[in-house]
Design a protein that fits this description.
With 148 residues, the protein is mainly α. 70% of the residues lie in helices and 7% in strands. It has a two-stranded antiparallel ribbon with strand order 1-2. Helix 3 packs across helix 4.
């Protein structure tokens, strides 16, 4: 396989893997989709109390419209609240609810075990190489995203 073939294989495999991971996660997670769970997790890791929808979108690399739609679904399920910002009337602030943190605590062990099982056939060396490769791809895509 030449380099072009390898690049195309990796690119296609990442897309297929993303779809398979979403299906796997959706079947494993109760009450949330994998994308909803991941959005809540990312918000919890932002280090910003009550971030705006725009800040969440920027942090996740997703459009404001997509994030807002997902947050509205999560608000209906009472995982977040969305309120007008007191600092900027055009902005909406996102607050994770108690239900979100209770969900994280209740499912932490189950999730860790599932991820461990998922990677059980991957050696430490393979995992290290994959980590470095994905980090580089994220940097390249981040740089490309911000140039356009």
């Amino acid at each position: 396989m030449n380099r072009t073939d390898k690049e195309e294989y990796v690119f296609g495999s990442i897309l297929l893997l993303a779809n398979k991971l979403q299906i796997w996660g959706d079947n494993m997670i109760d009450d949330l989709t994998m994308k909803q769970w991941f959005l809540l997790l990312l918000i919890s890791k932002m280090g910003i109390l009550n971030p705006t929808v725009k800040e969440v979108a920027d942090f996740t690399g997703t459009s404001r419209q997509n994030v807002k739609k997902m947050l509205e679904q999560l608000e209906k399920k009472e995982y977040v609240s969305i309120d007008k910002s007191k600092k900027d009337a055009r902005a909406l602030n996102v607050t994770l609810s108690r239900k979100t943190f209770e969900y994280f605590i209740a499912n932490e062990k189950r999730g860790a075990e599932a991820v461990h099982d998922l990677f059980s056939e991957i050696t430490d060396d393979e995992l290290s190489v994959t980590n470095r490769t994905l980090e580089k791809l994220l940097i390249v895509l981040g740089n490309h995203f911000w140039r356009n």
